[in-house]
Amino acid sequence: MQYIKVFAPGTVANLGCGFDVMGLTLDGVGDLMEIGVEKGAEGFSIRNESGVVLPEKIEENVITPAVRMMSEAYGEPVRIEIRLLEKIVPGSGIGSSAASSAAAVYGINELLGRPFSGRQLVEFAMQGEALLGGTAHADNVGPALLGGVVLIRGYEPLDIVRLPVPDNFFYAVVHPDIVVSTKMAREALPREIPLAKAVTQWGNVGGLVAGFALGDVELIGRSMCDVVVEPYRKGFIPDYDLLKSGALEEGALALNIAGSGPSVFALTADYDTACRVADRMKAHFDARNVGCRPYAGRVSNVGARIVE
Ligand code: HSE
Predict the structure, then answer these.
(1) 129 in catalytic set
(2) What DSSP character marks residue 49?
(3) Which of 20, 230, 233, 234 to mutate to test the pocket of ligand 1 (most atoms within 8 A of CB)?
(4) What is the pLDDT along the chain (308 residues), one digit of tens a residue?
(5) Looking at domain 2-163+302-307, which CATH architecture does it have?
(6) Ligand 1 atom 3: the closest Cα is on which residue?
């Protein structure tokens, strides 16, 4: 059996207007696991030593469908052991499930001698997302595996574009103690959208991609606007409009819901502003007796990796 330790970062999906097609990588928060692989043997186990409560049945762990699809594609017997050491709290909205399945498939691929491409790893890791929300979206697993800002240009076939992250780009994320499952947040969305809203939305998605490509943080900020999903999900977060106006007053370029929530994220052009915005968002939840955990850091260009 050969062992390695792998880290995969937290991620923010959607980035406002890019529902299910855009995501970015957070520095300083993620999952850490030890992975063991033995070729020519059979078996699969997950041991949770992270201290975070997870489903006990292996079939209910998001890692399982990702590893199963990967093993089938590999086609030869392989025994896999996973020991979870550090874990983003599930339901936080910063890509907890994606970090787990991304770290697992990345590490197994390394130990097998890299038989699979980055795109294939994304396809395997997406299966874990399907277990939770019913849909195999890649806007968390893409950045968790590949790092940076990721655009999923298409799903059938999967077409992933990595966009450069400007140097002066920071995040503030706050995870309030509110339970919003991905399933619940997806069920809140309308099945159809009016053409006028679609026009606004694709203008913003184009602006966002252009902003990243040009390194124009102001353009990124004003494009991170969502008229399709945010109006239906903001009700899960207490006084969301006030939270947003407070963050913008504090100097944030934009604020939106992180993935399906309940975390919210803001982007800023410097670290001090990110810290101030995180404090302001924490004060918002404190004032409403909602516990929360704030984070601030740099948007990262690095995805899943071997550590130690
Ligand atoms: N794009 C997904 C959603 C992310 O918003 O439902 C969920 O983690």
Answers:
(1) yes
(2) -
(3) 20
(4) 999 999 999 999 999 999 999 999 998 899 999 999 999 999 999 999 999 999 989 999 999 999 999 999 999 999 999 999 999 988 777 899 999 999 999 999 999 999 999 999 999 999 988 887 667 889 999 999 999 999 999 999 999 999 989 888 999 999 999 988 888 999 999 999 999 999 999 999 999 999 999 999 999 999 999 999 999 999 999 999 999 999 999 999 999 999 999 999 999 999 999 999 999 999 999 999 999 999 999 999 999 999 98
(5) 2-Layer Sandwich (3.30)
(6) 260
Q: At how many degrees (to 10) do helices 118-133 and 96-111 cross?
A: 140
Name the amino acid, one letter, at 232. Y
Domain spans, the chain: 2-163+302-307, 170-298
CATH class of 170-298: alpha beta
Q: Which of 140, 184, 189, 256 best tests ligand 1's pocket when mutated (most atoms within 8 Å of CB)? A: 140
pTM recorded for the entire structure: 0.92
On the 0-12 / 13-18 / 19+ scale of CB atoms within 10 A, 1 is exposed
Residue ranges around ligand 1 (CB below 6 Å): 13-14, 19-20, 133, 137, 139-140, 182, 185-186, 259-260
- Among residues 11, 123, 129, 268, which one is catalytic? 129
Active site residue 182: yes
For residue 89, CA distances in Å to 16, 83, 92, 94, 99 come to: 22, 16, 6, 9, 11
| Token pair 């907890």: residue | 96
